[in-house]
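Request: Show me your protein:
***
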Amino acid sequence: MRLKNLKKLLRKKKSITKYVTEMVFCLHIFFYGTYKFFFKIKIMKIASHHPNIIRFYGITKLQYEKKYSLILENADNGTLRDYLRNDAITFKWKEQLKFAKEIASAILWLHDDKGIVHRDLHPNNVLIHQNTIKLADFGRSSLKGTDCYNTEVWGVLLYVDPKALNRNIPYKINEKSDIYNLGFLFWELTSRKPPFDDLENDYITCKILSGKREEPVLDTNVKFIELYQKCWKHEPDERPNISQVNSELNSIDSKNNNASIVPYEGEKNVHSCQIDVNKICQQE
């Protein structure tokens, strides 16, 4: 961020802390290297001009600090994960669908308008400001078509594309990985809890690789269930693209959840599970 622009921002606002989200993270220019450092800044600048993506204002560094901090828009309701776990918040079907549409709108903007793949979608990277979704944390993002293979597995295990868990077969992380994440995000909007919350990581991984998914929550719209079940398919080619996701979301009635029980049997014999989770996954 140019110094004169930062000064203008500071003059307008009494306290810069009001405009720095709790999720501000630091980047070390010498660790990333000059190119990677400015590439991530470029991604943030391109991506942030959308009402459902956290606004990027620039970078700053305290006089005695070695790390550079991102100056981001504030999110007064914290993360989506914390929001969903707050029992004091009433979260009905209309609000669930609204959040789903806002998340999908942000991904549509990234994929189709800006050619960006987020690559690290999960509820802790989705913020809420004044009851509006704000997608955040582009530290792992890349441009569509970039050769980003699974040289390592990072992030929240439940939201890792299962195709990337097999280290023996290189898999190119792409926009269909974001779609997979949407499947679990949409399910979590209705359940208000993490998938397989009562299981350890090794059991979760075996379930995912064996084609198992969470059961639909009662009183969830049938079309919504069918949509997120398509999103979390094991095979990327069987997942919809983001334009199809948005189109289906817009066809769902927000006033009538049209609920019924839609069991999910999973995809049988998708992958044998003989893995050591500690070796393949680095939790963040």
